[in-house]
Amino acid sequence: MTQSLQNKVVAITGAASGIGLECARYLIEAGAVVYLLDRDAKALEEKTAELGSQAHAIIVDLFDYKTVDAAVAQIVQEQGRIDVFHANAGAYVGGNVWEGDPDSWDSMLHLNINAAFRSVRAVLPQMMKQESGDIVMTSSIAGMIPIMAEPIYTASKHAVQAFVHTVRRQVAKYGIRVGAIQPGPVVTPLLKDWDQARLEANIKAGALMEAKEVAEALIFILTRSKGVMVRDLVVLPHNFDA
Known about the structure:
Residues 8-184 form the Ketoreductase domain. It comes from Gluconobacter japonicus. Pfam families: adh_short (PF00106). Keywords: Oxidoreductase. This protein has a single domain (9-235), classed as NAD(P)-binding Rossmann-like Domain (Rossmann fold, 3-Layer(aba) Sandwich), CATH 3.40.50. Helix 4 (102-130) links the parallel strand 4 and strand 5. It has a seven-stranded parallel sheet, with helices on both faces. The chain starts with 8 loop residues before the first strand and ends in a 7-residue tail after the last strand. The chain contains seven helices and seven strands, in the order βαβαβαβαβαβααβ. Helix 1 packs across helix 7 (211-222), helix 3 (65-79) packs parallel to helix 4 and helix 4 packs parallel to helix 5. By secondary structure, the chain is α/β, with parallel strands linked by helices.
């Protein structure tokens, strides 16, 4: 028997565009109350208006940890709980290491690792108090297998996987489920950082997928029966391995 998402309180980081926005749309369609967390105030205003009364916007800069804590406090004050936290925000840097910009690496690693981990930590006390909750992190297939074209990004997602698997065991006794979605290449704004030849080759091969595929995977994870969890869910374009 699957669980209903009706009236579940959900917070999503990086929710003003791409995967986060599509996940918000699917969750609202399933009956959830969704808080979109992002630093893009204009996009948040536009998208929450588009999504309707079940969508709420909170301006959050994941590099400013006080704004994350304040967002969690606001959600709890308004709703009394947080049922789902989707740590989705992330950045991408690809290319050869010897040609890379270490300053760009620092920014990406800070967001994909430090900021993501701290955002999860921010919601844990409330979920432990209520003895329930789902935490899902947007990881990547790069967190499961090394992708030669993106060594620094791959390293960041391997860190996410290690975090998911250890935190899951720490908080299981509180009724909290922790898992990750590992998508292959998704058509989002992050693809602007891809090498053009690689992008064109993937388009030609049919090795890209839409954000809705990740949103559907998230719904699947969250609706599993109580006592059952999806630890890792890999979602790939059909021709990815080709």
